[in-house]
């Protein structure tokens, strides 16, 4: 083996190399890493990633894989928590650095956990869009559903940009652009700044505004499926709304009309 073909020395356990980093706001960034050859996952799942802690032990946190299952690399979309044990360090990674990635994907936001339907709703706040960044790029999403509605809500417009750019790029994606066609309806809202659409996801579903704005029929258990990812409070409130439309929570072991995952574990939860 010549020097040029010697693979880089992995210094961390389960090390993967950072290939790209992009900062979206002072509290949000995304990054891409090499993909372990053995890693198989379903779009929508999460893995444990992290860095070596000061005590010499791995400091790991759950992260949704934001890239689709077919991608050669893995993408993640991250918060920067001031003084957060992991993200106060992780936010400084650069291409060429290594992170730890435990190749054991898990999670409920997968197609297998939903019964077949006509329309699927992806409902996310904040970094909760990460699993849907994967699922919006997953061919199975468009094979299984005639319509896909991505509702994403953040406090500010700048926090919506990662999702906006991703949705915008899908049209021209050589791999899935044609499948996406006009099946994907994107409904971003900001709650604390003026924007063309405002209000919480829960309010826009309850009032029927989103159905009106997008020219869609209201949700019904016969046709609609949903996947939810946000704070604990958001998940709880949106589940109530989905139940009011007659949808029931499912799981991998028992597929039903909707599934839920926490985007993070809040203080004291
Ligand atoms: P921590 O000590 O873990 O968190 C400190 C506090 O920061 C928390 O108590 C909470 O109040 C707040 N917080 C943590 N994460 C977030 C967040 N994402 N949005 C808003 N507030 C937050 N985080 C991501 O950034 N991207 C992901 O794709 C992602 N996927 C997750 C999937 C699952 C199933 C779970 C349970 C969590 C996920 N998280 C994700 C959260 C992640 O595991 C860490 O909590 C986060 O990276 C912060 O780590 P930390 O060590 O800096 O701070
Ligand atoms: P709002 O600005 O009205 O609180 P956060 O940063 O607090 O996690 O919130 C992210 C986004 O989710 C914000 O737009 C916020 O709206 C919205 N949100 C927070 N809690 C809920 C909830 N319980 N139900 C619906 N939307 C929520």
Automatic annotation (TrEMBL):
Its cofactor is FAD. Belongs to the ferredoxin--NADP reductase type 1 family. The keyword Manganese does not apply. Residues 11-112 form the FAD-binding FR-type domain. It catalyses: 2 reduced [2Fe-2S]-[ferredoxin] + NADP(+) + H(+) = 2 oxidized [2Fe-2S]-[ferredoxin] + NADPH. GO terms for molecular function: ferredoxin-NADP+ reductase activity; nucleotide binding. This is ferredoxin--NADP(+) reductase. InterPro entries: Cbr1-like_FAD-bd_dom, FAD-bd_FR_type, FNR_bac, FNR_nucleotide-bd, FNR_type-1, OxRdtase_FAD/NAD-bd, Riboflavin_synthase-like_b-brl. Its EC number is 1.18.1.2. Keywords: FAD, Flavoprotein, NADP, Nucleotide-binding, Oxidoreductase. Pfam families: FAD_binding_6, NAD_binding_1. GO terms for biological process: cellular response to oxidative stress; heme catabolic process. PROSITE patterns: FAD_FR.
